[in-house]
């Protein structure tokens, strides 16, 4: 079984194009919605969305599964969390695949105070947004995404309450997800976690994906003992726009194991 972890502000529908190829090949793919995303509930008042909480919740999901997934597959934020989990709990991860993610975002110690102030400021209440139309949200999400309108609509529909096609829509996803993080790991902390990853790992980067990820790979590729990198067609959401080459890369990496 493959446990699929989506990216920030996306949802489990982001893996639908990949599942249409992998499932007929004999793979079982389970895709979840992170808290605050898609159809998952929101965190309680007075709490926030820090990535450490996501790691804890991922561990709770793993504990509830009837059997451990053979592979953790994550895109963007999901790829970051999958790789951190594989370092914190190396005995629980057999294979790791990260799409358009090369480990955690980090900061330097000198930026700690500035980051905390900005993170806390982002938690201040904001005016409610005006009524939104699905068509306008699709156009906004298309900008710079590399996605097609049908793929954008597929993602948005799971994050929205839609009563009628021409009526205003409401966000199902939690607006607190857009708050800035008040704390980030340092590079030494990230290295300490990644150095514990025991599973073979595959990092898939889009040929038109984020250039900074290739730079991060050059710096971090030696941190995980058994890590491979492969370029695939597409941009940041290559698993949606170009699912066939991504699925083939996944299949070659996993072999005939299920």
Automatic annotation (TrEMBL):
Molecular function in Gene Ontology: hydrolase activity
Secretion signal, residue range per the UniProt entry: none
Alphabetically ordered keywords of this record: Hydrolase
Record has Transcription regulation as a keyword: no
Superkingdom of origin: Bacteria
Matches recorded under SUPFAM superfamilies: alpha/beta-Hydrolases (SSF53474)
Pfam families xrefs: Abhydrolase_1 (PF00561)
InterPro entries with a match to the protein in the record: AB_hydrolase_1, AB_hydrolase_fold, AB_hydrolase_sf, Epox_hydrolase-like
Domain annotation AB hydrolase-1: ranges: 2-242
PANTHER family, per the entry: HYDROLASE, PUTATIVE (AFU_ORTHOLOGUE AFUA_2G14860)-RELATED (PTHR43798:SF33), MONOACYLGLYCEROL LIPASE (PTHR43798)
Name under which the protein is recorded: Alpha/beta hydrolase
Origin species: Ferrimonas pelagia
